[in-house]
User: Fold this.
Amino acid sequence: MTLLPIAPHSPWLAPLAGYSNLPFRLLCREYGCAVAVTEMVSAKGLVLGSPGTAGLLATCANDHPLVVQLFGAEPEILGQAVIRLKMQGVQWFDLNAGCPVPKVVKTGAGAALLRDLGRLAACAEAMVHAAGRGTVGVKLRLGWSEEALVYATASAHLESLGVGWITLHPRTATQGFSGQARWEHLTQLKQATALPVLASGDLFTAEDGLRCLETTGVDGVMFARGAMAGPDIFARYLALFHGTPAPPRDVAAIHTMVARLAELHTRWGSPRQGLLQLRTLAPRFFRGLDHARAIRAQLMTCRSWEEALMHIAHLEESWSSSSPAARASVWG
Ligand SMILES: Cc1cc2nc3c(=O)[nH]c(=O)nc-3n(C[C@H](O)[C@H](O)[C@H](O)COP(=O)(O)O)c2cc1C
Assistant:
């Protein structure tokens, strides 16, 4: 069994419902992502053969190493799901114990497991039993609410059950995405457990990733919204980590990124999902760049990849032929 890279120089792509599909994961890997996690997959849906679940599990030889994230609240079903996935060649798994979305929580899954640590342990144990020690991670939030921060207790128990690593998003479930991720809890978890700890939470830039690593002592970082704003975050992070020059972030670089995503969607995705991803993801790549509002609006409403790439090519042309002063006025 090969070990998963959990190390400072091995940035992970987070599970991202609706985003971390095969084409997006492949693009992130091309920029240096070391391990990618699928979006959360319902263990029950998988076991019952629900339509749609297979699409979430699409993968290919280059999509490696891959962690499949499951959500569920029934140990037996989670165990069965792992056995099925193992038969399909999946080697690594993750249990979602952090999703605060009502649809998930009301089934007792996701962050609801933080209110029932016995069930959390039983779910993790069933997955470890089916998958093997060290091959299952658990992704936690701090706890359900401020009054019950259970991550340290939960991690100690999970460690004794043969879980391989913990990912911590240091917010409570009731917080959702509000406030700031409290990285000090990453430091505390790292000191309290012998398990490798991955950090997730407010890692919007490569600099955030490195700062989190240095200030908390975690074993590795996981990019989520930072990767949605540009999979090149992996290359920037690795450049910063190794002290080499960062790759440029200009219109040409974004053009290359969107064009490659188009290719990967054509080869590995579905046309419907591809167009949806184009409209929601590509405009994010231009975020933070002043005066890029027009191109973002064009991308959000475009009807094909060809149209999107044409808009970006026009911007690139006017960009490369303009004076530095004019570029500043376009770009800010
Ligand atoms: C659109 C979106 C979808 C997400 N889907 C999942 C998911 O399927 N499973 C999961 O454990 N976390 C999910 N998350 C949480 C992220 O993996 C990550 O923990 C969180 O965004 C904090 O990291 P960030 O602040 O760097 O974005 C999702 C987050 C976003 C923004």
Remarks:
- The domain at 12-242 is CATH 3.20.20.70 (TIM Barrel).
- The first strand starts at residue 12 and ends at 13.
- DSSP finds 16 helices and nine strands in the chain.
- The two ends are 50 Å apart (CA to CA).
